[in-house]
Amino acid sequence: MKMTENKKRNLYYYLFDWANSPFSTIVITFVFSSYFTNTIAQNKIIGTSLWGWSIALSGIVIALLCPYLGYMADKNKSLSRKFLILSTLTVVICSFSLWFAEENINIFLFLGIIIIANIFFEIGQTFYNSQLINFRGRKKYGEFSGKAWAFGYLGGIFCLIIILILFLIPDFSIFKLDQEDYENIRICGPLVGLWFLIFSFPFLLNCKNDKSSSNRSYLFSSFLKNLKILSKDRNKLTFLNF
Asked: Has residue 230 been placed in a domain?
């Protein structure tokens, strides 16, 4: 039984969440955060502190950039698709580069890779969210978005299980990489990058690329004008505070 066009588009949207979730699960939360604090950093206390500050710094940059980028994404779908491709490729390249993160790597070079990857990951999320209406329309898009999030959550867990079985649990590891050189950990970066690249491709290929939306309503001056209008609306400001 062939899938309908709508079901295909739903699957494409779900697949992007499935594709990018391993980055936050494996790189940011579990594997590489632990690798940095326990191995690369001078000691665990310094490592935990530097990791926390790095994630905080990337969060500040994201908080400053994403309101305008989200505005731009809604105004110009052609740019939205281009930024999605750019952000995806940046995260993929950064993930692959983690293979070279040996024990004696420069701490700030390693953290720089993590910061750049995390910033572009969240930028990609902004443009991904802007494509929601294009893939689903306005019918039950809240439920649709929730299903995509759940699908992504499963993707992160599934990828983590694969990595544990293939590389990280010594008794079950299929590939016998050099654990003294942390190859079994460093290989997780390229695997995350490859996972992201493969499973995001159908979504990126089918993103709306509306050349008719090439007006300049997404310019920063227009964004500031809308901010001024928003600042006068107390109800919306109260909503945003929550």
From this structure: no
* Phi (first) and psi of residue 139, to 5 degrees: -95, 115
Number of domains present in the structure of the chain: 1
Rounded to 10 deg, the angle between the 44-75 and 77-97 helix axes is 160
Q: What percent of the chain has pLDDT over 90?
A: 61
For residue 42, what is the domain's CATH number? 1.20.1250.20
The helix (H) or strand (E) run that includes residue 50 is: helix 44-75
35: its two tokens:
């690798």
Is residue 38 a contact partner of residue 47, using CB atoms and an 8 Å limit?
yes
d(CA 235, CA 184): 52
Query: Could you report how far apart the first and last alpha carbons of the chain are, in Å?
Result: 45
**pTM for this one?**
0.88
* DSSP secondary structure code for residue 103 in this structure: T
Q: pLDDT tens for residues 139-162?
A: 777 888 999 999 999 999 999 999
Q: What angle do CA 145, 148, 154 make, to 5 degrees?
A: 145
* Calpha distance 114→56 (Å, rounded): 12
Residue at 202 is within a domain: yes
Distance of CA 229 to the CA centre of its chain: 31
29-46 burial: b if 16+ Cβ within 10 Å, else e: ebbbbebbbeebbeeeee
- Tell me the pLDDT of the chain averaged across its residues: 87
> By CB neighbour count within 10 A (0-12 exposed, 13-18 middle, 19+ buried), where does 174 fall?
exposed
CA distance linking residue 188 with residue 67, whole number of Å: 32
- Determine the structural domain holding residue 205 and report its residue range: 5-211
- What pLDDT does residue 134 have? 81
